[in-house]
Amino acid sequence: MKKQIGVIEPPSLKTKVMERKDYETVTEALHDLAQNGYTFDFSISDEKDCIICEKHDVQLSDEDFEIDAVYRFEGMNDPGDSMIVYAISSAKFNLKGVVVNGYGVYSNSSAAKIVEKLSKHP
Question: What dihedral angle (degrees, nearest 10) is formed by the CA atoms of 121, 103, 51, 91?
């Protein structure tokens, strides 16, 4: 079981009005976000500086979307279960989705680069 340890809101981002919730698990967060229209499942590209939704063949650069909310979860028994869920939206492409990434020693190095860019996104 993963326990949410906090909602992280990047200070430099303008966030859209979204009700903040406490989730017990990543699965619960993803299900609720999907119910609220966050239906695109993005991953962080290892080859490009973007996020990709392969199912819908969509690529977004850091300038194409905003972070609406960030939920951080810590594994109770295994540090490998530590994850961050980003709820993102793109006015340019009229879509909402999620990006799930590990953090700490289990994070993807390319993910760390895009997350750094995202934290500076106006």
Answer: -50
